[in-house]
Amino acid sequence: MLFDFASVLVFIILGLLFIFFVLLFSWVVSPRNPDKDKASTYECGERPLGPAWMKFNIRFYVIALIFIIFDVEILLLFPWAVVFQKLPKGVALVEVLIFIGLLLVGLAYLWNKGDLEWVKTVDKDK
Amino acid sequence: MSNSEIIYTVIFYVFGLLTIGSACIVAFSRNILHSAFALLLTFFGVAGLYVFLQADFLAAAQVVIYVGGILVLILFAVMLTNKITDIHMSNPATKPWLAAPLVLIVFAGLTWLIVKTDWAVVETAKLISEPTVEKIGYAIMGKYLLPFELISVLLLGALLGAAYLARPKKKD
User: Fold this and answer.
1) Which of A68, A108, B76, B136 has a CA-to-CA distance to B85 between 20 and 30 Å?
2) How far is it, in rounded angstroms, from Cα B161 to Cα B153?
3) Considering the domain boundaries, does residue A47 fall inside one?
């Protein structure tokens, strides 16, 4: 099993090397004569006003919280999916449908209460 | 030591150093955003250590939930907080004379535990075992079915609670 993870490690190392060499390559070949406009955040775009470190909208946090809940749910479905073929079909399916169904009730509740709606609530905040 | 054992040992220490080093950055960085990003490496290093403990499912869970979820949440929490760019707000040092003995006591206690515990040593050759995901699958579909369904209820509670607390309060 550790050997399987060796391939994961190889992927990670290759990924890091790839990033390193791409950055190195662009550093080697790129000409450097900066001026004020080029050094700004968006060279061809808006001039930034104020610092980038501003307050985020709380909506991001709510969506991230909801995401984590379903993240855990998906994770717990993996062991089930692995053994699904070897279990009595109906039973395993019903067991998982109960598991998912309970969380779907929660999702339906959030949807109904408007917690998932982005634009509407932003307007309400203003 | 055989060749493969040496490689395992080296990789183990790399992950250990990665975990401890980035944990130090989390603790000592003057910028709370740098701390949050260093936490990424800490979580990742811990996932690597889980692999060495033959806990493949736990390692995957660590990456999926902590790196993919909790860390994003922490970053959002940092970005959401007002005036957190001010170091006196984000990393205040309070009462070092009180903290020092506490830290020393915890350190001594942990060291004592590490020295006293009778660590089970398993030969590396015996460690090459089958994946645990399948066993976990049989366990949650059989013996631990009720806890598995209860997790769903727990998650439902967390979902509703989080949404309720984060909902903007009506002004009437």
Assistant:
1) A68
2) 12
3) no
